[in-house]
């Protein structure tokens, strides 16, 4: 938040490393496989966040060892996060995995859109979380779940594996069910001068406040 | 109230207690004259208050529209799981459910998935590497581990699951028992299947209609035709000669279903055995094996289910995309893009872009302002703001203008809030102007500069001197606006929260207080009703400098401030 609690302040260097594109990454985040992670810019990765970029899709037969296979491996992105997205403290982002016969586990790329807010202590293993989605604190988006645009996942929800959440849904419960629809004005406003940011809205103003 | 403090809820004028208000011009809506003060603690208030993102606006009627004063119109039906659009002609025959391979777990409602299992020669189920053994498929719940094996069903191929399921169900409920207790039992067992009973009844009544010469092609429309109406009239008195004759010609106009073959399930002594069986099963298997009510209601196939092993997968229920029309002028104010995966709109007129919106914040916040939706650290738990009773507190009320014209605002609020706990409220500057909203670029540029806040100390003082305002701390003053940006104006609101404890010092009638010592839920919530009236002018033909047409809009808002300390 804007003003850290008195005891919390780091005197020497700021908590966040800011990249050229304005991403803010906490020094206290655990990020593995950095080359396989794409951040869209003005995105915040907070303290205690674990990102498993090392879990990228591997070739079916690694024994082949051909150059094309190696090139493929380099280009495979494990985690893609859009612009103005906030990943709150102690959240884990782990690409979903499926075991196929013979070739062992295969990881699938995980995509998170723009202006997505993920509350603290969540676990994201979804295939995709589209833009303007608000995920409350302590949620689980189980492997291969797909959350479409403008959804609101209430705190403590467990979205079951491979569930597809249609656009504009409100999801709650364990297992998560669609319990309602967001209003037509979802995500409107906010981010303006001195204005409160709103769920599902533009999060740039909130991103600016993180320091 | 579930919303976090401070919040603003807007009242839709359609539910205002005085009926003809909607048709009146806004200028006639003097809150203190012919309209009573909006009472947020009124049990009815909850039905007319909405957060802004749920409110629409009709530009024809120049009025706020809420879910109660719009008509929904279904644009299409789609399956939320495969996002496949279902043509309206097929929706009814498929019982509003997806007829593709989408099923939900009858035990926990999560989506089910087709999973392959391989049977080895030893009969064990385990993952293999080759194509040995015969392939089998299951519907599998990855959330609670339920599989169709729990009901003894597996599939020979991963497609056409619906077909295979139906077959399996038929096979299961029409097993001809070899012993003598025979066909009867089979039928009654089948009748426990809701769909089956329905089908039989439907067939029976259709036949009846045909036999009695009724022309209706389905019994559902039996009372639609004039002939039927005449027959009904004749049955219930008013017998004309012709009708009497007609009814005599047909001695048996219609009878009801009379047997199990016809779909009537009756109690028979043989059912007693089944009851015994059920009781036995309950005793041996225990509570955990019985189906809950929710599970039994998951799909019509499960209506009679008593045990978990009778639960059938539930085909995913369809969802709809709906357009919304103004109930008064019938124009579309919401029209979504028909594509099921899309979140776009073709028409979307929302209150957010058409009415001035209010927000409240404390003038001297104690600690950072928290928005519980955006708590980013687990240890920063959100707490409702607590207000000290009987001590004056100042808040900044900001109104933002989404309209492209300068808007004149007048605010009105009762001096003391309605409800059991009376708090005093004063708006230091109740009428002012707000500048016009600009385009997106203006907005983007202005939002890159931070707000000037008097509590920022030296920096704000420097800013204040730059902008030409007086140095040092700004003092709230009656009749003066607090701060102003291009399209927002802030004023100071002074609140003296009432006391929850009955005291005579705050001027409440003693008898009233003593009667209601018992505290009702949310009595401690301080909510302030405010009537907002906005006036502006628009160019008549969209051309600048031409004729101006006055416009006005009035509505009630409720500001949720916090909870009053006990
Ligand atoms: Zn309404
Ligand atoms: Zn489907
Ligand atoms: Zn389940
Ligand atoms: Zn209208």
UniProtKB/TrEMBL annotation, chain A:
Bias (Basic and acidic residues): 55-64
This protein's UniProt keywords: Cytoplasm, Cytoskeleton
Chain positions covered by the region annotation Disordered: 1-22, 55-74
Stored InterPro entries: DCTN5, Trimer_LpxA-like_sf
Entry's Gene Ontology cellular component terms: dynactin complex
Family the entry assigns: Belongs to the dynactin subunits 5/6 family. Dynactin subunit 5 subfamily.
Designated name of the protein: Dynactin subunit 5
Organism in which the protein naturally occurs: Cladosporium halotolerans
Phylogenetic placement of the source organism: Eukaryota, Fungi, Dikarya, Ascomycota, Pezizomycotina
From TrEMBL, chain B:
Any single Pfam family the record assigns to this protein: Dynactin_p62
Annotated stretches, region: Disordered: 243-281, 448-476
Keyword annotations: Acetylation, Coiled coil, Cytoplasm, Cytoskeleton, Isopeptide bond, Phosphoprotein, Ubl conjugation
Coiled-coil intervals, chain numbering: none
Localization per Swiss-Prot or TrEMBL: Cytoplasm, Cytoskeleton, Microtubule organizing center, Centrosome; Cytoplasm, Cytoskeleton, Stress fiber; Cytoplasm, Myofibril
InterPro entries noted in UniProt: DCTN4 (IPR008603)
GO CC term, one of those recorded: stress fiber
Broad class of the protein's primary localization: cytoplasm
Family stated for the protein in its record: Belongs to the dynactin subunit 4 family.
Subunit structure: Subunit of dynactin, a multiprotein complex part of a tripartite complex with dynein and a adapter, such as BICDL1, BICD2 or HOOK3. The dynactin complex is built around ACTR1A/ACTB filament and consists of an actin-related filament composed of a shoulder domain, a pointed end and a barbed end. Its length is defined by its flexible shoulder domain. The soulder is composed of 2 DCTN1 subunits, 4 DCTN2 and 2 DCTN3. The 4 DCNT2 (via N-terminus) bind the ACTR1A filament and act as molecular rulers to determine the length. The pointed end is important for binding dynein-dynactin cargo adapters.
Protein name as it appears in the record: Dynactin subunit 4
Organism: Cladosporium halotolerans
């Amino acid at each position: 938040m804007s003003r850290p609690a008195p005891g919390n302040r780091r005197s020497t260097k700021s908590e966040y490393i800011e990249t050229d594109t304005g991403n803010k990454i906490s020094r206290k985040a655990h990020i593995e496989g950095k080359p396989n992670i794409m951040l869209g810019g003005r995105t915040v990765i907070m303290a205690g966040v674990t990102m498993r970029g090392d879990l990228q899709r591997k070739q079916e037969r690694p024994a082949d060892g051909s150059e094309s296979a190696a090139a493929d491996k380099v280009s495979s992105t494990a985690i893609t996060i859009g612009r103005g997205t906030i990943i709150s403290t102690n959240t884990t982002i782990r690409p979903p995995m499926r075991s196929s016969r013979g070739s062992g586990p295969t990881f699938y790329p995980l995509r998170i859109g723009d202006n997505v807010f993920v509350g603290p202590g969540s676990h994201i293993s979804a295939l995709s979380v589209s833009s303007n989605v608000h995920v409350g604190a302590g949620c689980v988006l189980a492997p291969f779940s797909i959350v479409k645009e403008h959804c609101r996942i209430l705190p403590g929800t467990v979205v079951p594996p491979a569930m597809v959440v249609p656009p504009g849904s409100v999801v709650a419960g364990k297992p998560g069910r669609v319990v309602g629809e967001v209003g037509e004005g979802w995500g409107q406003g906010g981010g303006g001068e001195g204005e409160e940011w709103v769920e599902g809205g533009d999060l740039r103003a909130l991103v600016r406040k993180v320091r | 109230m579930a919303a976090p403090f401070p919040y603003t809820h807007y009242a839709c004028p359609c539910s205002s207690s005085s009926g003809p208000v909607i048709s009146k011009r806004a200028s006639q809506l003097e809150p203190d004259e012919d309209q009573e003060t909006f009472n947020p603690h009124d049990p009815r208030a909850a039905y007319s208050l909405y957060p802004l993102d749920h409110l629409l606006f009709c530009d024809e009627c120049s009025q706020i529209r809420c879910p109660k004063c719009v008509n929904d119109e279904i644009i299409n039906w789609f399956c939320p799981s495969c996002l496949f659009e279902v043509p309206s002609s097929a929706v009814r025959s498929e019982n509003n459910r997806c007829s593709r391979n989408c099923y939900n777990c009858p035990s926990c409602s999560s989506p089910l998935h087709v999973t392959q299992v391989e049977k080895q020669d030893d009969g064990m189920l385990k993952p293999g590497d080759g194509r040995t053994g015969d392939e089998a498929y299951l519907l599998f719940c990855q959330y609670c581990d339920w599989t169709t094996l729990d009901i003894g069903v597996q599939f020979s191929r991963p497609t056409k699951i619906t077909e295979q399921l139906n077959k399996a169900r038929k096979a299961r409920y029409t097993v001809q028992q070899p012993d003598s207790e025979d066909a009867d039992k089979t039928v009654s067992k089948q009748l426990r299947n809701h769909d089956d009973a329905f089908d039989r009844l439907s067939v029976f009544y259709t036949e009846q209609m045909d036999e009695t010469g009724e022309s209706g092609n389905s019994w559902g429309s039996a009372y639609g035709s004039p002939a039927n109406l005449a027959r009904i009239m004749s049955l219930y008195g008013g017998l004309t000669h012709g009708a009497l004759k007609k009814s005599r010609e047909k001695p048996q106009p219609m009878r009801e279903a009379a047997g199990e073959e016809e779909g009537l399930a009756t109690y028979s002594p043989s059912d007693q055995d089944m009851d015994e069986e059920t009781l036995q099963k309950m005793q041996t298997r225990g509570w955990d094996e019985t189906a809950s009510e929710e599970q039994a209601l998951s799909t019509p196939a499960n209506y009679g289910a008593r045990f978990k092993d009778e639960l059938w997968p539930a085909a995913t229920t369809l969802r709809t995309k709906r357009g919304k029309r103004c109930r008064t002028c019938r124009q579309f104010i919401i029209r979504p893009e028909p594509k099921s995966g899309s979140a776009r709109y073709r028409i979307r007129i929302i209150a957010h872009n058409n009415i001035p919106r209010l927000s409240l914040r404390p003038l001297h916040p104690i600690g950072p302002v928290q928005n519980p939706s955006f708590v980013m650290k687990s240890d920063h738990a959100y707490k409702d703001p607590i207000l000290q009773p009987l001590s004056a507190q100042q808040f900044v009320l900001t109104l933002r203008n989404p309209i492209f014209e300068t808007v004149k605002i007048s605010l009105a609020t009762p001096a003391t809030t309605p409800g059991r706990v009376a708090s005093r409220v004063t708006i230091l500057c109740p009428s002012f102007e707000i500048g016009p909203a600009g385009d997106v670029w203006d907005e983007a540029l202005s939002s890159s500069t931070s707000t000037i806040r008097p509590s920022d100390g030296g920096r704000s003082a420097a800013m204040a001197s730059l902008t030409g305002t007086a140095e040092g701390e700004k003092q709230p003053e009656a009749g003066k606006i607090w701060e102003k940006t291009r399209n927002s104006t802030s004023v100071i609101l002074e609140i003296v929260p009432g006391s929850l404890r009955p005291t005579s010092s705050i001027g409440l009638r003693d008898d009233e207080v003593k009667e209601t010592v018992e505290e009702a839920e949310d009595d401690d919530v301080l909510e302030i009703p405010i009537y907002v009236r906005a006036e502006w002018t628009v160019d008549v033909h969209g051309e600048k400098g031409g004729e101006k047409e006055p416009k006005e809009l009035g509505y009630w808002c409720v500001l949720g401030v916090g909870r009053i300390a006990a």
